[in-house]
Predict the structure.
Amino acid sequence: MGARVPITPGMDLHDKLAEHLGLDTALTPEQAAQILVGAAGYARDALRALDECTRPDLDQPALRDLSRRATVIESHLRALHALALERCADAAVCDIPVAVEANLGLAAKCRTLICQRTVAVDQEVMILRAPLAAFQLPC
């Protein structure tokens, strides 16, 4: 990608993405490509986080960090999707929002699976820390 555009402080994510991509005028082919590459990069990051969450040596704080990372990835893709819907009305680039939405769906599924794994590990730890009498099972 080209030179990085400095991000103005105090802007919401949607505006930061628009500023980063230089979307003050009509969408150029390069900007459309940046949207697609960005969406694919976020989806790749979500898949990496999902893969990482399956490591058996991860502790609870690491899983919570992965869950937060997956949430951030999904929110960035959501903002990128809104931006694509707003800027890709031209027939030449009308499929870009569909591609971004597919990446958003993938990231959302990854986040859900990571959150489920985090909850499962939290429950396992809670059970392991509970005294046996709490389960009222015969020995």
The helical segments are 13-21, 29-53, 60-87, 96-129. Residues 96-129 form the longest helix (34 residues). Confidence is low (pLDDT under 50) at residues 1-7.
